[in-house]
Automatic annotation (TrEMBL):
This is Response regulatory domain-containing protein. Gene3D superfamilies: 3.40.50.2300. Keywords: Two-component regulatory system. InterPro entries: ARR-like (IPR045279), CheY-like_superfamily (IPR011006). The lineage of its organism: Eukaryota, Viridiplantae, Streptophyta, Embryophyta, Tracheophyta. PANTHER family: TWO-COMPONENT RESPONSE REGULATOR, TWO-COMPONENT RESPONSE REGULATOR ORR8. One of its GO terms (biological process) is phosphorelay signal transduction system. It comes from Setaria italica (Foxtail millet).
C-alpha cells in the first residue's frame, strides 16, 4: 500500500513543488480540494493525524506557537527530498 500525505498550502507554486518532491519519493499526494474535505478541525477523525507545518517564515515565536498547538514538527520551505523521510517518520 502506498503512503499518502494530505497537502494543503495557500500557494499553488509551493503546492506544486511539494507535490513533486513527495511524488519523486513514491508518496501519493492528496490535493487541496480533497484535503479541505477532511480539514474540519472539530472532526475527531483528525485528532490522531500528525501535523507537520512548513513555512517560509521560520520565526522562533511562530514555530513555538505551532508546536505548542500540537504540530509534530515545523520545516522551512521549500520542502526538499531530504525532508521526506523525516516527515514520513510521523506517519
Amino acid at each position: 500500500m502506498a503512503t499518502h500525505v494530505l497537502l494543503v498550502d495557500d500557494s499553488c507554486v509551493d503546492r506544486m513543488v511539494a507535490s513533486r518532491v513527495f511524488e519523486s519519493c513514491n508518496v501519493k499526494v492528496e490535493g487541496a480540494k480533497q484535503a479541505l474535505k477532511f480539514l474540519d478541525m472539530k472532526s475527531p477523525k483528525l485528532n490522531h493525524l500528525p501535523v507537520v507545518i512548513t513555512c517560509t517564515n521560520v520565526f522562533t515565536e511562530r514555530v513555538k506557537r505551532c508546536l505548542d498547538g500540537g504540530a509534530k514538527d515545523f520545516i522551512a520551505k521549500p520542502i526538499k527530498v531530504d525532508d521526506v523521510p523525516h516527515i514520513l517518520s510521523y506517519i
